[in-house]
């Protein structure tokens, strides 16, 4: 048995190295599966960043309507939505959404 191992020493080391590098190529911290997970995480974070950027821009716009140039139409819309106020001889209907 020992003679067989000595004769095929190069072959055994080559097979071991191929298995070792093949396994590390597919799995492990820098492997293919980890790479795919990191790509998915990156795309999710980019989507979240885009959503948050849009929310910030929307809030900045609403803030500018209330601070620099006072927009009376926007203030009236806020009062109607938040406090359910209306004008004289105006009927307000409240429609509730079906929440489960």
Q: What profile does the largest beta sheet have?
A: none
Average the pLDDT over all residues and give the rounded result: 85
The overall strand count is 0
**Beta-strand residue percentage:** under 5%
Structural class: mainly alpha
Instruction: Work out the helix count.
Output: 4
General shape: rod-shaped
Q: Note the gap between the termini.
A: 73 Å
Order of helices and strands: HHHH
The low-confidence parts are none
Mind telling me the C-alpha Rg? 33 Å
Give your account of this protein's structure.
The protein has helices at 2-7, 9-26, 32-67, 72-83. It has 100 residues and is mainly α. The radius of gyration is 33 Å and the shape is rod-shaped. The chain is 72% helix and 0% strand. The chain contains four helices and no strands. The chain has a domain at 31-83. The longest helix has 36 residues, at 32-67. The N and C termini lie far apart (73 Å).
């Amino acid at each position: 048995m020992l003679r067989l191992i000595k004769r095929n020493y190069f072959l055994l080391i080559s097979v071991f190295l191929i298995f070792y590098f093949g396994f590390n190529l597919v799995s492990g911290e820098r492997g293919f599966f980890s790479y795919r997970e990191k790509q998915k995480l990156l795309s999710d974070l980019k989507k979240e960043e885009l959503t948050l950027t849009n929310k910030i821009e929307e809030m900045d716009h609403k803030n500018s309507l209330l601070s620099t140039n006072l927009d009376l139409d926007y203030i009236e819309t806020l009062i109607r939505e938040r406090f359910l106020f209306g004008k004289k001889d105006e009927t307000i209907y409240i429609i509730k959404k079906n929440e489960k």
